[in-house]
Amino acid sequence: MSEIELKTDIKTPVTAQNDQSSADTKDDCTAQSQPILYSFRRCPYAMRARMALLAANLDVELREVVLRDKPQSMIDASPKATVPVLVLPDGTVIDESLEIMVWALAENDPLEWLSPESGTLDDMLALIAQNDGPFKHHLDRYKYHTRYEDVDPAEHRRDAEKILNRLDGRLAVGKYLFGSRPALADFAIAPFVRQFANTDKEAFDAMPFVHVQRWLADFLASDLFEHAMKKYDQWHKGDAPVIFKAA
Ligand SMILES: N[C@@H](CCC(=O)N[C@@H](CS)C(=O)NCC(=O)O)C(=O)O
Protein backbone atom coordinates (compact mmCIF):
# COMPACT_ATOMS: atom_id res chain seq x y z
CA MET A 1 0.00 0.00 0.00
CA SER A 2 1.46 3.33 -0.95
CA GLU A 3 1.94 6.11 1.54
CA ILE A 4 -0.92 8.14 0.06
CA GLU A 5 -3.41 5.28 0.41
CA LEU A 6 -2.18 4.88 3.95
CA LYS A 7 -2.81 8.52 4.69
CA THR A 8 -6.26 8.66 3.17
CA ASP A 9 -7.22 5.46 4.94
CA ILE A 10 -6.57 6.88 8.39
CA LYS A 11 -10.02 8.12 9.18
CA THR A 12 -12.15 7.76 12.24
CA PRO A 13 -15.69 7.07 11.14
CA VAL A 14 -18.35 8.77 13.21
CA THR A 15 -21.57 6.81 13.05
CA ALA A 16 -24.31 9.35 12.75
CA GLN A 17 -27.52 7.45 13.50
CA ASN A 18 -27.54 6.58 17.20
CA ASP A 19 -24.90 8.90 18.41
CA GLN A 20 -25.92 12.15 20.01
CA SER A 21 -22.46 13.66 19.63
CA SER A 22 -22.43 13.19 15.89
CA ALA A 23 -25.95 14.56 15.70
CA ASP A 24 -24.49 17.69 17.29
CA THR A 25 -21.61 17.62 14.85
CA LYS A 26 -24.16 17.70 12.07
CA ASP A 27 -25.86 20.57 13.83
CA ASP A 28 -29.15 19.22 15.03
CA CYS A 29 -29.55 16.50 12.43
CA THR A 30 -29.94 18.84 9.47
CA ALA A 31 -28.50 17.21 6.37
CA GLN A 32 -24.90 18.26 5.95
CA SER A 33 -24.21 18.92 2.30
CA GLN A 34 -20.64 20.13 2.57
CA PRO A 35 -17.65 19.08 4.65
CA ILE A 36 -17.31 21.11 7.84
CA LEU A 37 -13.87 22.47 8.69
CA TYR A 38 -13.14 23.51 12.25
CA SER A 39 -10.30 25.92 11.83
CA PHE A 40 -8.30 28.61 13.59
CA ARG A 41 -6.93 31.33 11.35
CA ARG A 42 -3.49 31.64 12.91
CA CYS A 43 -2.80 27.93 13.41
CA PRO A 44 -0.16 26.73 10.90
CA TYR A 45 -1.75 23.28 10.74
CA ALA A 46 -5.16 24.76 9.97
CA MET A 47 -3.56 27.10 7.42
CA ARG A 48 -2.14 24.25 5.43
CA ALA A 49 -5.43 22.36 5.51
CA ARG A 50 -7.27 25.44 4.23
CA MET A 51 -4.73 25.96 1.44
CA ALA A 52 -5.06 22.35 0.29
CA LEU A 53 -8.86 22.63 0.25
CA LEU A 54 -8.50 25.76 -1.89
CA ALA A 55 -6.00 24.05 -4.18
CA ALA A 56 -8.43 21.16 -4.56
CA ASN A 57 -11.28 23.54 -5.35
CA LEU A 58 -13.39 22.08 -2.58
CA ASP A 59 -15.87 24.32 -0.78
CA VAL A 60 -16.33 23.65 2.92
CA GLU A 61 -18.37 25.11 5.73
CA LEU A 62 -15.83 26.95 7.86
CA ARG A 63 -16.26 27.11 11.62
CA GLU A 64 -13.73 29.48 13.14
CA VAL A 65 -12.64 28.20 16.53
CA VAL A 66 -11.27 30.09 19.51
CA LEU A 67 -8.93 27.62 21.19
CA ARG A 68 -9.89 28.56 24.74
CA ASP A 69 -13.58 28.17 23.87
CA LYS A 70 -13.79 25.14 21.59
CA PRO A 71 -17.24 24.16 20.35
CA GLN A 72 -18.64 20.98 21.87
CA SER A 73 -19.51 19.64 18.41
CA MET A 74 -15.81 19.77 17.49
CA ILE A 75 -14.78 17.97 20.68
CA ASP A 76 -17.48 15.36 20.07
CA ALA A 77 -16.21 14.79 16.54
CA SER A 78 -12.56 14.69 17.63
CA PRO A 79 -11.92 14.29 21.36
CA LYS A 80 -8.25 15.21 21.00
CA ALA A 81 -9.65 18.65 20.19
CA THR A 82 -6.94 20.10 18.00
CA VAL A 83 -7.62 22.15 14.90
CA PRO A 84 -8.06 21.54 12.05
CA VAL A 85 -10.89 18.98 12.05
CA LEU A 86 -12.74 18.09 8.88
CA VAL A 87 -16.13 16.37 9.17
CA LEU A 88 -17.33 14.87 5.89
CA PRO A 89 -21.05 14.65 4.98
CA ASP A 90 -20.98 10.88 5.67
CA GLY A 91 -19.74 11.54 9.21
CA THR A 92 -16.10 10.63 8.58
CA VAL A 93 -13.76 12.73 10.69
CA ILE A 94 -10.23 13.67 9.60
CA ASP A 95 -8.40 15.42 12.41
CA GLU A 96 -4.81 15.58 11.23
CA SER A 97 -3.90 18.49 8.97
CA LEU A 98 -1.66 16.49 6.65
CA GLU A 99 -4.37 13.89 6.21
CA ILE A 100 -6.85 16.64 5.36
CA MET A 101 -4.41 17.93 2.73
CA VAL A 102 -3.88 14.50 1.21
CA TRP A 103 -7.60 13.68 1.34
CA ALA A 104 -8.53 16.94 -0.43
CA LEU A 105 -5.88 16.51 -3.10
CA ALA A 106 -6.82 12.88 -3.66
CA GLU A 107 -10.32 14.23 -4.45
CA ASN A 108 -9.02 16.82 -6.89
CA ASP A 109 -5.49 17.94 -7.63
CA PRO A 110 -5.53 20.39 -10.55
CA LEU A 111 -2.24 21.98 -9.46
CA GLU A 112 -0.58 18.56 -9.17
CA TRP A 113 0.56 19.06 -5.60
CA LEU A 114 0.74 15.30 -5.07
CA SER A 115 2.97 14.79 -8.13
CA PRO A 116 5.97 17.07 -7.72
CA GLU A 117 8.17 17.92 -10.64
CA SER A 118 11.15 16.26 -8.99
CA GLY A 119 11.04 13.51 -6.37
CA THR A 120 7.97 11.62 -5.23
CA LEU A 121 5.08 11.97 -2.84
CA ASP A 122 6.95 9.82 -0.33
CA ASP A 123 9.96 12.15 -0.57
CA MET A 124 7.66 15.08 0.19
CA LEU A 125 6.08 13.24 3.13
CA ALA A 126 9.57 12.56 4.52
CA LEU A 127 10.49 16.25 4.35
CA ILE A 128 7.15 17.19 5.93
CA ALA A 129 7.84 14.68 8.73
CA GLN A 130 11.13 16.47 9.41
CA ASN A 131 9.20 19.73 9.64
CA ASP A 132 6.41 18.38 11.83
CA GLY A 133 8.89 16.58 14.07
CA PRO A 134 12.32 18.15 14.71
CA PHE A 135 11.69 21.59 13.20
CA LYS A 136 8.43 22.09 15.12
CA HIS A 137 10.12 20.82 18.29
CA HIS A 138 12.85 23.46 18.04
CA LEU A 139 10.45 26.16 16.83
CA ASP A 140 8.22 25.71 19.88
CA ARG A 141 11.18 25.84 22.27
CA TYR A 142 12.52 28.94 20.55
CA LYS A 143 9.24 30.83 20.10
CA TYR A 144 7.39 29.69 23.23
CA HIS A 145 10.39 29.03 25.51
CA THR A 146 8.58 30.37 28.59
CA ARG A 147 6.17 27.44 28.33
CA TYR A 148 8.99 24.98 28.89
CA GLU A 149 11.24 24.40 31.83
CA ASP A 150 14.95 24.62 31.35
CA VAL A 151 15.17 25.33 27.66
CA ASP A 152 17.64 27.63 26.01
CA PRO A 153 15.81 29.37 23.15
CA ALA A 154 19.09 30.28 21.44
CA GLU A 155 20.09 26.64 21.29
CA HIS A 156 16.74 25.63 19.77
CA ARG A 157 16.94 28.50 17.34
CA ARG A 158 20.34 27.22 16.16
CA ASP A 159 18.98 23.70 15.76
CA ALA A 160 16.00 24.99 13.76
CA GLU A 161 18.42 26.98 11.60
CA LYS A 162 20.30 23.80 10.74
CA ILE A 163 17.07 22.46 9.26
CA LEU A 164 16.42 25.75 7.44
CA ASN A 165 19.94 25.53 6.06
CA ARG A 166 19.07 22.19 4.46
CA LEU A 167 15.87 23.66 3.01
CA ASP A 168 17.97 26.52 1.66
CA GLY A 169 20.15 23.98 -0.15
CA ARG A 170 17.10 22.44 -1.85
CA LEU A 171 15.74 25.86 -2.74
CA ALA A 172 19.06 26.86 -4.30
CA VAL A 173 18.55 24.07 -6.82
CA GLY A 174 14.86 24.50 -7.64
CA LYS A 175 12.56 27.45 -7.11
CA TYR A 176 10.43 25.26 -4.82
CA LEU A 177 11.24 22.35 -2.54
CA PHE A 178 10.55 19.72 -5.22
CA GLY A 179 11.22 21.46 -8.51
CA SER A 180 10.21 24.55 -10.41
CA ARG A 181 6.57 24.55 -9.32
CA PRO A 182 5.08 24.43 -5.82
CA ALA A 183 3.69 21.18 -4.43
CA LEU A 184 2.36 19.65 -1.21
CA ALA A 185 5.62 20.05 0.72
CA ASP A 186 5.88 23.79 0.08
CA PHE A 187 2.44 24.51 1.45
CA ALA A 188 2.72 22.02 4.31
CA ILE A 189 6.02 23.48 5.54
CA ALA A 190 5.87 27.21 4.76
CA PRO A 191 3.39 28.12 7.56
CA PHE A 192 5.95 26.88 10.11
CA VAL A 193 8.86 28.73 8.52
CA ARG A 194 6.63 31.81 8.61
CA GLN A 195 6.23 31.33 12.37
CA PHE A 196 9.97 31.00 12.77
CA ALA A 197 10.57 34.17 10.71
CA ASN A 198 7.96 36.17 12.63
CA THR A 199 9.51 35.29 15.98
CA ASP A 200 12.38 37.69 15.20
CA LYS A 201 11.93 39.10 11.73
CA GLU A 202 15.08 41.18 11.83
CA ALA A 203 17.20 38.17 12.75
CA PHE A 204 15.49 36.08 10.06
CA ASP A 205 16.14 38.71 7.40
CA ALA A 206 19.80 38.88 8.46
CA MET A 207 20.29 35.11 8.05
CA PRO A 208 22.33 33.93 5.06
CA PHE A 209 19.44 31.76 3.81
CA VAL A 210 18.54 33.85 0.79
CA HIS A 211 16.67 31.05 -0.95
CA VAL A 212 14.45 30.33 2.06
CA GLN A 213 13.80 34.07 2.40
CA ARG A 214 12.81 34.36 -1.27
CA TRP A 215 10.64 31.21 -1.07
CA LEU A 216 8.87 32.44 2.07
CA ALA A 217 8.30 35.90 0.54
CA ASP A 218 6.74 34.27 -2.55
CA PHE A 219 4.52 32.14 -0.34
CA LEU A 220 3.36 35.12 1.72
CA ALA A 221 2.56 37.05 -1.47
CA SER A 222 0.63 34.16 -3.04
CA ASP A 223 -3.09 34.46 -3.74
CA LEU A 224 -3.63 31.12 -2.07
CA PHE A 225 -2.11 32.25 1.21
CA GLU A 226 -3.99 35.53 1.09
CA HIS A 227 -7.27 33.71 0.46
CA ALA A 228 -6.54 31.20 3.24
CA MET A 229 -5.90 34.00 5.75
CA LYS A 230 -9.25 35.72 5.32
CA LYS A 231 -10.71 36.62 8.73
CA TYR A 232 -13.87 35.03 10.13
CA ASP A 233 -15.76 35.61 13.35
CA GLN A 234 -15.86 32.86 15.96
CA TRP A 235 -18.45 30.22 15.05
CA HIS A 236 -21.32 29.54 17.45
CA LYS A 237 -23.84 26.74 17.22
CA GLY A 238 -26.88 27.91 15.27
CA ASP A 239 -24.95 30.44 13.15
CA ALA A 240 -25.74 30.53 9.46
CA PRO A 241 -23.14 28.44 7.60
CA VAL A 242 -20.11 30.34 6.35
CA ILE A 243 -18.84 28.81 3.15
CA PHE A 244 -15.09 28.86 2.61
CA LYS A 245 -15.18 29.00 -1.17
CA ALA A 246 -12.36 27.94 -3.37
CA ALA A 247 -13.15 30.37 -6.21
N1 LIG B 1 -0.98 17.07 14.45
C1 LIG B 1 -2.08 17.99 14.45
C2 LIG B 1 -1.67 19.21 15.28
C3 LIG B 1 -2.74 20.28 15.34
C4 LIG B 1 -2.48 21.27 16.48
O1 LIG B 1 -1.67 21.02 17.39
N2 LIG B 1 -3.22 22.41 16.47
C5 LIG B 1 -3.12 23.32 17.58
C6 LIG B 1 -3.31 24.77 17.17
S1 LIG B 1 -2.05 25.33 16.09
C7 LIG B 1 -4.25 23.01 18.55
O2 LIG B 1 -5.36 22.82 18.15
N3 LIG B 1 -3.93 22.94 19.85
C8 LIG B 1 -4.93 22.66 20.85
C9 LIG B 1 -5.05 23.74 21.86
O3 LIG B 1 -4.26 24.68 21.83
O4 LIG B 1 -5.97 23.63 22.67
C10 LIG B 1 -2.44 18.35 13.02
O5 LIG B 1 -1.54 18.27 12.15
O6 LIG B 1 -3.59 18.69 12.72
Characterise the protein shown here.
By secondary structure, the chain is α+β, with helices and mostly antiparallel strands. The chain folds into 2 domains: 3-111 and 229-244, 3-Layer(aba) Sandwich (Glutaredoxin), CATH 3.40.30; 121-226, Glutathione S-transferase Yfyf (Class Pi), Chain A, domain 2, CATH 1.20.1050. The chain has helices spanning 3-9, 20-25, 44-55, 72-77, 97-107, 121-143, 153-173, 184-199, 201-206, 210-221, 223-228; strands at 12-13, 36-39, 60-64, 85-87, 92-94, 243-244. The protein has a 6-stranded mixed sheet. The longest helix has 23 residues, at 121-143. The protein starts with a helix and ends with a strand. Residues 1-28 have low confidence and may be disordered. Glutathione (GSH) binds at residues 40, 43, 45, 67, 82-84, 96-98.
Structural class: alpha+beta
What oligomeric state is this?
Answer: single chain
Helix content: 40-55%
CA-CA gap between termini: 34 Å
Total domain modules = 2
Q: How many distinct helices?
A: 11
CATH class of the largest domain: Alpha Beta
CATH 2nd-level architecture of the largest domain: 3-Layer(aba) Sandwich
Kindly state the mean pLDDT as a whole number?
A: 90
Can you say what the CATH homologous superfamily of the largest domain is? Glutaredoxin
> How many beta-strand segments?
6
Rough shape?
A: globular
* Sheet with most strands: 6 strands, mixed
What small molecules does this complex bind?
glutathione
- Whole-angstrom Rg: 19 Å
Unreliable segments (pLDDT under 50, ≥5 consecutive)? Answer: 1-28
CATH topology of the largest domain: Glutaredoxin
Question: In sequence order, what are the helices and strands, one letter per element?
Answer: HEHEHEHEEHHHHHHHE
Instruction: Give me the side-by-side strand order of the main sheet.
Output: 1-5-4-2-3-6
Q: Report the β-strand fraction as a percent range.
A: 5-15%
